[in-house]
Amino acid sequence: METTAFQKIYTKITQITKATCSLKATGIGYEEIATVNGRLAQVVKIQGDDVTLQIFSGTEGIPTNAEVIFMGKAPSLKVGEELAGRFFNAYGEPIDGGPSVEGKEVEIGGPSVNPVRRKQPSDIIPTGIAGIDLNNTLVTGQKIPFFADPDQPFNQVMAEVALRAKADKIILGGMGLSNDDYLFFKNVFDNAGALDRIISFINTTEDPPVERLLIPDMALTAAEYFAHEKNEKVLVLLTDMTLYADALSIVSNRMDQIPSKDSMPGSLYSDLAKIYEKAVQFPDGGSITIIAVTTLSGGDITHAIPDNTGYITEGQLFLRRDTEIGKVIIDPFRSLSRLKQLVIGKQTREDHPQVMNAAIRIFADAANAKTKLENGFDLNDYDERTLKFAKGYSHDLLAIDVNVDIDSMLDTGWRLFGEHFEKAELGIKDELVQKYWPKK
Amino acid sequence: MATKGKVVGIIANLVIVEADGPVSQNEICFIKMDGVDLMAEVIKIIGVKAYTQVFESTRGLKVGTDVEFMSHMLEVTLGPGILSRNYDGLQNDLDKMEGVFLKRGDYTAPLNDDAEWEFTQIAKVGNKVEAGSWLGEVLEGWMPHKIMVPFKFKGNYTVKSVVANGTYKTKDVVAVVTDESGKDHEVTMMQKWPVKVPIKAYNNKPRPFKIMETGVRTIDTLNPLAEGGTGFVPGPFGAGKTVLQHAVSQQADADMIIITACGERANEVVEIFTEFPELEDPRTGRKLMERTTVICNTSNMPVAAREASVYTGMTIAEYYRSMGLKVLLLADSTSRWAQALREMSNRMEELPGPDAFPMDLPAIISNFYARAGFVYLNQMKADGKEAESGSITFLGTVSPAGGNLKEPVTESTKKAARCFYALNQDRADSKRYPAIDPIDSYSKYLEYPEIQEYLKKTISEDWVENVTMVKDYLLRGKEASEQINILGDDGVPIDYHLRFWKAEVIDFVILQQDAYDSIDKSSTLERQKFMLDLVLSVYNTEFKFDSFEEVNPYFKALINTFKQMNYSEYQSDKFKNYLKEIDTKINERKAV
Ligand SMILES: Nc1ncnc2c1ncn2[C@@H]1O[C@H](COP(=O)(O)OP(=O)(O)OP(=O)(O)O)[C@@H](O)[C@H]1O
Ligand SMILES: [Mg+2]
After folding, report:
1. What is the largest CA-CA distance in chain A?
2. B458-495: per-residue pLDDT in tens?
3. How open is the CA angle B372-B375-B379, to the nearest 5 degrees?
């Protein structure tokens, strides 16, 4: 960033901690950015003329006579059509060797949409994956994370979903992304010929972790530009939000804040909500849909990060390896799309809600039967049938490699019902059973 | 002269102000940032330093900025025109704001000064009145909205004049009352009240003695909520708290519903904005929005205003209660309010209590719940013999961290609320909605003799007994299922299977209810009684089965027919046919 005449320059730092430095300065705005010996920093506390700056890349090697230049503005991004197809770092600077973007400068982390100006999300996003479309249907303007252990192929599934989603723009916010994963995304989008619709803000494992904190706001500021000003359908991919939250806790610990559960800051809920609530359906057709990744440790969803996320997002997609079929499935029990009821049975076939529920109920019965078996008990005839159903259901519908349209998913559901059950065992409305029960 | 001050410190939305005069706790001040005024509330005072929580983002704020203290606490504006509005947590009218994005410092008036109201006198010249007495009424939509002696008026007054029936504007003087010292006071249709102070303009608050119908079977039948009562719904994310509250907001037998969306998702309030103007109130046929006011401070809106939002909702509820109305107040989620308190308390570096929540959290929660209740007003009915009455029924949700009910917000709320509707993750996972755990949940009101009397009188003599019985049966069903799991299907007598399956009938037919089915979503008390009797008759039937393998398919089929019945209009031909089918099925297996 270049220095200009009216910027304030200081060279006397009074205090340095692991993440912050303090100095005497006046006329400084809260959340204003500055550089400290060239490193980007932001004002986090002002007391009298004591100003505390958080240095994103850490304070290692910062001397007490470091040059501090205040920029007189909050972190910002230049937005414009030229963003399309480009790769940036956490500060919004190009990392693809291309020129810097010219455009309107917008402060990141801007205001929220007035709730009464929002439109109710109502456009289905078909992905071909039945674990999503059938059981956890996605809608534009929704925010939903994948909950997955680190060894699950979440980035692959996410890339697949993104490409099938028919979005006008896909904005990738990579936080603590391994270089391999970064290249993976680049390749997949390139091979799909989609690079010109993609904008990426990337912080890799090689970059300082605290820089990640800027990524979601950068990505969403770009998203707001395309969705609000250009009325485009924008899909934002945020991976991995657990690493984002880890960076939050690093900062708050270093600033001696009182941690709450799992050494996360007490404001974790609000911090995450500010990001996810940027998902919106605008009345003029533009929308921001957020698909994120929250990695779990040992499948524990009660940990503060997935827990707070679950309380904020509109459902979650839970990836699990089903050993019965040797494939990764979208677990119907813990997964949920809260916006599905806005579209299922309305934009999809009328039998969708009931087929979905009946199948999941039987899948639950099958899980019980399995427990029974493991405890060494005999199975009754119904148990046996649920197990057979479960295998077919898992393989033909839940597996992430399924790619069919929603009507076929429903037909598959009815076929499986017909193969294993009597009509009365399903608890589905009579009218629907009469209409869709497979003819022998 | 009003106190002024200057900003001396900024830590997120905690702003420290050096004041040049007296400042009171909870006083409101405005920080005069160039061009925008940021509203803030004093939350702590040390010497000349006032610690304020700002209801807006403090981005760009500088030390030295001027501050103006307002000499009043955070207040809401009360008067006709609140009904059907959508407010933010500080009662700004969201619809009046310009632009798609919320602008900092954009404060909009809660009422329309220009609105004209058709005023009808109630009080007569010479009447003795006090705060909360009805002077007249205007029609707010369909609702007779009482114009009252302002709550801030202390002591006794005599009505000096009331304007003639006719059309008046919100701020027109409609009456003059004289206090005991002979001084006259003008009364308009509008008044203000500090949200954190309960409105006590009523005569007495008896124990709740009737129930509030919600249309949700597992509440009304099993653990009824009293009119003027309190309840809360704790549950892990995705267990169904919001869906349950929305269901209650649509079907409950209340005159007015105030929905406080406190730190939750914007799309959930959008659902209300979109659907309530279309959906009908099953009792009156009017649109739901005509009896609803929404206070919304979604999770991305400023944290301090989130804390204010529940108080704003409660104060508006108290205002309408004073008009003799049956008000239902819903808050989703009270945990977000507690978290807002926690964020501030941490910023002020107060000594933290459990899970870093403020030490006085239990007291704050119980004081809030205590504002609900059924009250007899000071206002007498036209016959002059009986007092008018009104009520606030409060139902809040709690979002326990990690779904663990042993956390401060749940535990504090449990002490304050009389009904406990615990959502169970396993039930939600197996789509047994609403996922209220029938065994852990309770309604203390069921133990109140006055409520028992009421239920006996309005539903049936044996109702309370039946409900108690059903709870026992559910417990027995659970025990039977545990035994079957331990000993195996053939390791237990057939009787265990029967006990389990009979409990399943209760579960599927009474407890489970499809919030998205146009018919099943709401059940009248009459229908609930009919179904409970029917299910009990199944329970009390002696069945004959030769092997346990016959039990499962039989009950599955029976439950299926019952569900079809739940999906059918009450007492329609379809309903009656299913009833016959059930009868036939029972007779097939009846032991003779
Ligand atoms: N009664 C019901 N009938 C059918 N589906 C339901 C019912 N209750 C809940 N659900 C399903 O569960 C989902 C989650 O419910 P809801 O949004 O009410 O959860 P919540 O407890 O409020 O979660 P959070 O704490 O995250 O806000 C709904 O979107 C819906 O799919
Ligand atoms: Mg909710």
Report:
1. 85
2. 999 999 999 999 999 999 999 999 999 888 888 899 99
3. 135
Closest Cα in chain A, distance from residue B514 (Å) = 11
pLDDT digits (tens, 9 = 90+) for A25-82: 999 999 999 999 999 999 999 999 999 999 998 899 999 999 999 999 999 999 999 9
Question: Is there a single domain that holds both residue B241 and residue B381?
Answer: yes
Closest chain A residue by Cα to residue B559: A427
- How far does the centroid of ligand 2 lie from the alpha carbon of residue A54, in Å? 34
What b/e string do you get for B446-467 counting C-beta neighbours within 10 Å, with b at 16 or more?
A: bebeebbebbeeebeeebbebb
Residue of chain A whose Cα is closest to the Cα of B563: A427
Which residue in chain A is spatially nearest to B509 when comparing CA positions?
A: A427
Within-domain flag for B217: yes
State the burial class of residue B126 (Cβ atoms within 10 Å of its Cβ: 0-12, 13-18, 19+).
Answer: exposed
State how far the Cα of B591 lies from the Cα of B10, in Å rounded to an integer: 78
Q: How many domains does chain B have?
A: 4
CA of B239 to the centre of ligand 2 (A): 8
Contact residues on chain A for B64, CB-CB shorter than 8 A: 26-27
CATH of the domain at B228: 3.40.50.300
Residue of chain B nearest A142, judged by CA positions: B267
Q: How far is CA A361 from CA A324, A333, B137, B428, B438, in A?
A: 18, 9, 54, 11, 19
Longest CA–CA span in chain B (Å) reads: 91
> What pTM, to 2 d.p., does this model score?
0.94
Q: Is B8 on the interface with A (CB under 8 A)?
A: yes
Nearest to B401 among A282, A307, A316 (CB): A307
Closest residue by Cα to residue A138 from A121, A116, A154, A113? A121
List pLDDT tens digits, range A321-337: 999 899 999 999 889 99
CB contact under 8 A, A424 and B560: yes
Point out the ligand 1 atom lying closest to the alpha carbon of residue A341. Answer: 31
Residues of A in contact with B63 (CB under 8 A): 26, 28, 46, 48-49
Q: What is the pLDDT of residues B237-286, one digit of tens each?
A: 999 999 999 999 999 999 999 999 999 999 999 999 999 999 998 889 99
Q: Is the Cβ pair A377, B488 closer than 8 Å?
A: yes
Same domain, B238 and B385: yes
Pocket-forming residues, ligand 1, beta carbon under 6 Å = A 310-311, 336, 338, 341; B 235, 237-243, 264, 399, 433-434, 514-516
User: What ipTM, to 2 d.p.?
Assistant: 0.92
Structure tokens at B29: 């001040």
Q: Which amino acid is at B167?
A: T
| B25 Cα to chain A: minimum distance (Å) | 22
> What is the CATH number for B63?
2.40.10.170
Nearest CA distance, A268 vs chain B (angstrom): 10
Q: Where are the domains of chain A?
A: 2-70, 78-339, 352-436
- Return the CATH number at B132: 2.40.50.100
Residue B384: which residues within 8 A CB-CB, separation 6 or more?
Answer: none
Average pLDDT over residues A278-297: 96
Q: Do A266 and B346 touch (CB under 8 A)?
A: yes
CATH architecture, domain A2-70: Beta Barrel (2.40)
Q: Is B186 helix (H, G, I), strand (E, B) or coil?
A: strand
Cβ distance of A425 and B342 shorter than 8 Å: no
B271 neighbourhood in chain A, CB within 8 Å: 120
